[in-house]
Design a protein that fits this description.
This protein is an alpha/beta fold. It has a single domain (12-223), classed as Vaccinia Virus protein VP39 (Rossmann fold, 3-Layer(aba) Sandwich). It is built from 6 helices and 10 strands, in the order H-H-E-H-E-H-E-E-H-E-E-E-E-H-E-E. Strands 1, 2, 3, 4, 5, 6, 7, 8, 9 and 10 form a 10-stranded mixed β-sheet that branches. A hairpin with a 2-residue loop joins strand 9 and strand 10. It binds S-adenosylmethionine (SAM). Residues 7, 9-10, 23, 49-51, 54, 70-72, 75, 96-98, 113-115, 118 line the site of S-adenosylmethionine (SAM).
Length: 224
């Protein structure tokens, strides 16, 4: 058995709804995926690492059969409350992406937006196996991974392995593992899938007079 760092969810307790704008509004890519997967007649959607539930609500409001899970109890509680308020029907569970709490070949499409990076290198390979296990043949998964070009990978944070650091910065991700990939590593991790699309997206923001360059891989994979 290979060693994998212990999973640890976000500390959502310190993020109030009032300051959670980013996490309550769907990511731009999710609107494209909604359109793509509707056109493909996909039905069972999994929001892997659902956070506060922005994509769970989007897909459930648009006719998908939605399942969602997160390792954080607070995230599950807040997603459940939101779904209930809107009168939506969603299968929500607490669980760890290293052992996705759903049956083999039960899911048509998966969105993991800024989630899979929260483990180490061995963990990322294990999650790729789990994605393969739960997806139906022809099923798709859209996921993001931190890039080695992002500012975080250049910080002097504690290293877990050659690709993984512990985020030594106060906030909801304090001391949570962050795995960073480069182009070649992506092909190694997802060798069993068809890679439909890869984008390397840069986001710039300024905080306390310092400008950050944050790069993520956006990857669309398909189970063969
Ligand atoms: C950056 S947030 C993104 C939330 C959501 N995907 C979104 O786009 O709004 C990352 C989420 O991944 C969850 N997470 C971290 N490690 C996890 C694990 N091992 N299993 C399941 N969820 C995990 C965190 O608790 C957090 O809610």
């Amino acid at each position: 058995m290979v060693d994998i760092i212990k999973s640890q969810g976000w500390n959502w307790e310190i993020v109030s709804d009032e300051f959670a704008d980013v996490w309550k509004n769907p990511a731009p890519e999710s609107f494209y995926l909604l359109h793509r997967w509707k056109k493909q007649h996909k039905k069972n959607f999994l929001d892997l690492g659902c956070g506060l539930g922005r994509h769970t609500v989007l897909f459930a409001s648009n006719g998908f059969d939605v399942s969602a899970f997160d390792i954080s109890e607070n995230a599950i509680e807040r997603t459940s409350n939101w779904v209930k308020e809107l009168g939506l029907n969603v299968n929500i569970k607490q669980g760890d992406m290293l052992n996705i709490p759903f049956d083999n070949e039960s899911i048509d499409c998966i969105l993991c937006m800024n989630v899979i990076s929260h483990t180490d290198t061995n963990g990322t390979y294990k999650i790729a196996d789990e994605l393969k296990r739960v997806l139906k043949a022809g099923g798709e998964c859209y996921l993001t991974l931190g890039s080695k070009e992002t500012w975080g990978f250049k910080q002097n944070w504690p290293m877990v392995d050659a690709n993984t650091k512990l985020r030594d910065e106060q906030g909801p991700e304090y001391m949570i593992p962050h795995f960073y990939a480069d182009y070649d590593l992506i092909f190694k991790i997802f060798k069993d899938f068809e890679i439909v699309d890869i984008k390397h997206i840069g986001t710039y923001y300024t905080k306390d007079n310092k400008t950050y360059e944050s790069y993520h891989w956006h990857i669309l994979i398909k189970k063969k």
